[in-house]
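hiii so my PI (J.) wants the whole complex modelled not just the main chain, which honestly fair. so below is everything: two entries, each one labled with what it is. i double checked the lines twice but i was tired so who knows lol
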Amino acid sequence: MSAEIRTSDGELLSVKLRKVERRRRTTAFLLAAPLLFFIVFAYVIPIFQMLGRSVDNVQMNEFLSETHEVMQIWDGTEMPGEDVTSTFFYELKGLVEEKNHGKIATRLNYEKGGFTSLIKKTARKLKDFDENGNFLDQFINVHKKWGDIEYWLALKRGTDAYHFRKYLTTFDYEQKFDGSIERIPEKKRINVTLWLRTIFVAAGVTFCCFLLAYPISHLLSVLPTRYSNLLMICVLLPFWTSLLVRTSSWMVLLQKQGVLNDTLVSLGIVADEGRLELMYNMTGTFIAMTQILLPFMVLPLYSVMKTIPPSLMRAATSMGATPFLAFRKIYFPLTYAGISAGSILVFVLSIGYYITPALVGGAKGTLISNRIAYHMQQSLDWSLATAMAAVLLVAVLIVYWLYNKIVGIDNMRLG
Amino acid sequence: MSGKKSDFVKFEQVDKSYDGKELVVKGLDLDIAEGEFLTLLGPSGSGKTTTLMMLAGFETPTNGEIYFDGNPINNIPPHKRGIGMVFQNYALFPHLSVFENLAFPLKVRKIDKAEIEERINKTLKMVSLTGFENRMPAQLSGGQQQRVAVARALVFDPKLVLMDEPLGALDKNLRESMQYELKHIHETLGVTVVYVTHDQGEALTMSNRIAVFNDGKVQQLSGPNELYETPVNSFVAGFIGENNTFTGTVKELASGSAKVETSTGEIILANPIAVSSAGEKSRISLRPERVNINPTEQIENRFEAEIKEIIYHGDHTRVRVNLLGNDDFILKVPNASSNSKLNLGDKVNLGWSSQDCRALDY
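here's the output for the full assembly
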């Protein structure tokens, strides 16, 4: 047993230290608390709530809770029995009285097309039902779709409290009513193409940024301060301009009757009828995103290069290495930290880029973020939108995880 | 030194300007002998580092030619010169281990693996760093990094090694032991070393010859003791060691002796070094340790002085006196028991020989 160390007034050293430090720690925490609360309430909680929507179906489950329950013992191989149909009748009747049947119609329509009209027509005819008769027959009389078992299966599946089918949709798969998972018909596949394109564009933009930023950053790090400051302002200028303005100016430059094409035509490099398609395709997305994201590559590279003493290159050449060899063996490896930090920044930013591809991308240059926006604003399939967003988030986290594995997050320098 | 070239490295009328307005190095003529340890000593901005960088190939002479082993090297890039170099902050490659740092110049020369290992072991042994092969530079102390830098500059057997203030970042004790170590390495290998420093103690300890730089020019080029004992001008006298000065006018000039009248009207007998005619103004230089206190024998210069300050320095005591109008005249008194009776305000007689007091340029 080691002796306990006490301060001269007899208190335990560890206790005393904690007492003395507590005040300082409390102050530090209080200073950080507003930001912490802001982040938790305005950022973390909403994000998780939103992401919950990708699997959440609780409302449907509540609207048709009894139907859902009795359907659990129905195996789905034959038409449902009277226990199911009667329960559904009474619950639907209740929903119609509360005017909530529209909501379930929309929701069920995601499960199987045709449900909207089916529910609406049935709702109008509910009052004509004979509560002592056969409910299934009466349903089929109202609309013959009720005779199709798939609608009943869709009803069963559509009332599950939680489901992961939107994640399948994200990768162009679907779950059949027999539970098997299959790819959707080729003509309908769009998401996988968008994912691949997004990753391709993000990687490509990252590489272009690296190629352009490396020499600039080197120049910045070796120039005397008065010149490097000026150059730095030029690099940072994009930060001070609105993203929308920058993207719009790229539209002015790149369009078919734009500045760049006009110049090329007037110089005779391109024929007037052969003006280059620089916009509304991948080229436009590439050019604009590279320019906009360039500073995110320059800054970490510059901050790393600034710390490399010029004497290292001199030492290498004095030992007989050609300038190229000295660069490859000494300078370049020393900039890895900057390259990786810049690359991860640009990659992560471009994987979720929205405005630029939306404005200059056209059909061939849109990315997964544009698809997410489409589902949020046009199709209103928020579950699918959030499922996609969740996949995007996971992708970014994987990138970070890989980065930490390979480089170590501690080595990141961001300026 | 039979067979060794006395002009192994030769600077011929070398000028260097960075901005086209001012010359940093002016008309430099300098011969460096093979196997020599030559130090370029001078205050910052005196052109010594520029001279070294021109020799290494990182700067181009604006005018003149540099020869290395008989060949002009102005147009040879640094990596083809085969000159080893130790940098001010060591310039070790931080991402490579000690072994890899040392292997770098050998790999560049495409030497095979077994020999690389052998040479590195030999060199590390020489700098007493055996067993440190796998350390990274950041895991080494300043002194160890220094040794690695020296080892790396020597491992490829260059005929000439340049050192740019290599000990500047070390603390005093380590610096002194490294000085001896470098000197021994030089003696063992017989390699030619050109060493840049602004620390005169370092220069005096290590060098065969010292070139004192000031204002882009070599002020004096000689061995350490001549430099200290017989400085040729006021700058060298003032820069090397401690120095007491008087200013005055030359009254009479004969061979081996000059009478100089000080501002207070007294006549000092001095050794004329850098004065050529009577009536010239001169600065007289006198080393503190060459002054006798209350001399008993006959001596050429003898004056009375008043003690202004006594500063205890451990092995000796520094005594500041007022002598012939110079209020900052310093005496160095060994702390032997016979000298302990000096008191503030006492009047003492000071005497020195005319040979020890040198009449230099004003």
